[in-house]
Design goal:
By secondary structure, this protein is α/β, with parallel strands linked by helices.
Length: 360
């Protein structure tokens, strides 16, 4: 069985190890969603990952609803991302940009008062993070059939912009209760057209987005993230094994470079699942590299590789607080704890100031 430190072919490049930086929203862009110089430092510090997956990045104004989160739909955003990718490459790393449309999770205050879009006329539970503090989510309007082409164009435009900004590839964010996930799951997708109802219809948008992105940048530069086991920001499904195995088969047919799954355990420390992991059935349906994420220690990660459950592990909070995580794992060094109070602040504290381990 491979170890976490063995190389792995991921699409069109060979990763030096199987320890990925998971996508982590950090909120260090400008109010206009333009990346800032400190982001180059942050990602370069973590370039020893087998693959760096960027924080979720808005594909359009319509899809962006996180304060100080970055975007990739304007020329200014593209130019501001270039120092980030240059810094990662100078440090010997590879970086993919995660493409994000938040769907009903976008508060109208980000849209000039307009309704957000979703699969159906539903409302997310709880409160949205806005520039004016937390506010209740608003009911979304169903995305009209004649808007699907425009949405696919938005994904293609964002993917092209990512390549222009110097990224090595992209990851389609189809997880965590955002737009594509809202189409996938039967408690948030109430449509009676070609994108709703049976599983083969509900996976249609995911497959169309993945195919369009793969056609735009190449399948070897295209990854996808799913979150199959239980509720995520109010979306859930009555039969996730059937749904996500079908989704995995569709993605396998497109030939994407990898699939990453966020699956909190039943006793998770950052979200608790309400059902067991779904990755065993996904593993049978998807034959490319499969990466697991959420609450993995080094030992648990290696055990997943030993059991053949995954080809690598994406680490979030441990990598947030330990910019040299692969080195620490390789040498059995203790880990810095992360500080939740600074996850989403706008400065370097809790971002670029976590120390690397001393090297002898």
């Amino acid at each position: 069985m491979p170890s976490l430190f063995d190389p792995l072919q991921i699409g069109n490049f060979t990763a030096p190890n199987r320890i990925l930086l998971a996508p982590l929203t950090r909120g260090r862009a400008t109010r206009e969603h333009v990346p800032t110089p400190m982001m180059a430092t942050y990602y370069a510090q973590r370039a020893s990952a087998g693959l760096v997956i960027s924080e979720a990045t808005g594909i359009s104004r319509e899809g962006m609803g996180w304060p100080y989160g970055p975007g990739i739909w304007t020329g200014q955003q593209v130019e501001a991302w270039k120092p980030v990718t240059d810094a990662v490459h100078a440090a010997g790393g590879h970086i993919h940009l995660q493409l994000w449309h938040m769907g009903r999770i976008v508060h109208p205050s980000f849209l000039g008062g307009a309704q957000p879009v979703s699969a159906s006329a539903t409302t997310a539970p709880g409160d949205a993070h806005t520039y004016s503090g937390k506010q209740r989510y608003a009911q979304a309007r169903p995305l009209a059939l004649d808007e699907i082409k425009r949405l696919l164009d938005d994904y293609a435009h964002a993917a092209r912009n990512a390549m222009a900004a110097g990224f090595d590839g992209v990851q389609v964010h189809a997880a965590n209760g955002y737009l594509i996930d809202q189409f996938l799951r039967d408690n948030s997708n109430l449509r009676d057209d070609a994108y709703g109802g049976p599983v083969e219809n509900r996976i249609r948008l995911l497959a169309e987005v993945a195919q369009r992105v793969a056609d735009t940048v190449g399948a070897g530069r295209t990854g996808v993230r799913l979150s199959p086991n239980g509720d995520s920001q109010g979306v859930n499904d009555s039969d996730p094994e059937a749904l996500f195995s079908a989704a995995a088969r569709a993605l396998d047919g497109i030939g994407i470079a990898y699939l990453e799954l966020r699956e909190p355990p039943l006793n998770g420390t950052f979200g608790k699942a309400d059902r067991a992991p779904v990755h065993p059935v996904i593993r049978k349906a998807f034959h490319g590299p499969l990466f697991l994420n959420s609450d993995y220690s080094q030992a648990r990660a290696q055990a997943a590789l030993d059991a053949g459950e995954a080809d690598g592990i994406a680490f979030g909070r441990p990598f947030l607080a330990n910019p040299d995580l692969p080195y620490r794992f390789a040498h059995g060094l203790p880990l810095n704890p992360d500080v939740p109070a600074t996850w989403y602040s706008q400065g370097p504290e809790g971002y670029t100031d976590y120390p690397a381990a001393a090297r002898s």
